[in-house]
């Protein structure tokens, strides 16, 4: 049976990167991933590209290939909201394991901060809402998440202070990353006192809008001394719109995770590194609790105990996550996998944790709508 390995990663800085287009950013990240994997452009026979709201091209994968001088045997563009990056990695794994491709470049980037106005970005993202029942009421993505957060916090006994703990952890992690968007220290009090956006969510409970790009290469042949194998993957899609969500305690995250765990022959107890999607503090907390990394209503307590810290038993988003490293669309979610790879390779500098054995990555798109889970394992 063929295996699939992550063999190289690359990224730009995140933040305001004036004068760089979607394709410029993607090309920078892709070049760095190729250099990291010690591969040539001619070695790439598969290309997967994430969508861009600032360049909504119908054929973004072949557009990028033309720009980057690639002539792959397989090219595909994908749209699955925040789950796109993980879904592309899952597809890259399938392409490699089937023998269709030997080296798949997975890339996404966007000048979401400098390439469009704030109002345009808010309006574009709000379209994930129901066209008849949600969008006409003027709802934004934070409003959707605020409604969901209110229900979950009521049922699980979560407080605003619990949410604030995760914002502070992500900021502390981002401070140690040279490419992060937000690096000003914050406290729990700062989070609670920040501007209300969509109750119960405050400004610092929400991720920023960034420019940036990420790229990873998935290969049939492992490279280097430390091999990072993609051992499991799973998806679940229970609803698209908030008004169709049946139960905030069962969004689909656990279902996707269980498929990935079963495929890898692992459980939550085997995992020693976490890369969990964190578009909002409530997103991160809900995912940790539904998947089983904390009991309902107790994720913040595990954080306070030090379990999710750099030197804890389950280091979490050591790059700073979407909440502080930044969020430029698809590439924002890909950063969790890039950071996990660097942790495996011992390349995380001052962020380095004890070398992981098994990492778990999870991403969601929409309003906890589409879920993709991945397991990565180290093979010496």
Describe the structure.
By secondary structure, the protein is of the alpha/beta class. It has a domain at 5-116 and 210-219: Peroxisomal Thiolase, Chain A, domain 1 (3-Layer(aba) Sandwich). Helices cover 36% and strands 19% of the residues. The chain has 12 helices and 11 strands. The chain has helices at 22-37, 60-68, 84-97, 118-125, 141-156, 160-175, 188-193, 253-264, 281-291, 299-304, 321-325, 330-345, and strands spanning 5-11, 46-50, 74-78, 103-111, 196-198, 201-202, 211-219, 227-237, 273-276, 358-365, 370-379. The strands form 2 sheets. The protein has a 9-stranded mixed beta sheet, sandwiched between helices. It has a two-stranded antiparallel ribbon with strand order 5-6. Strand 5 and strand 6 (201-202) form a beta hairpin. Helix 6 packs across helix 9 (281-291). The protein starts with a strand and ends with a strand.
CATH class of the domain at 5-116 and 210-219: Alpha Beta
Shape: globular
CATH superfamily of the domain at 5-116 and 210-219: Thiolase/Chalcone synthase
Helix and strand string, N-terminal first? EHEHEHEHHHHEEEEHEHHHHEE
Alpha carbon gap, first and last residue: 19 Å
What count of helical segments does DSSP give? 12
Strand content: 15-25%
Structural class: alpha/beta
CATH architecture of the domain at 5-116 and 210-219: 3-Layer(aba) Sandwich
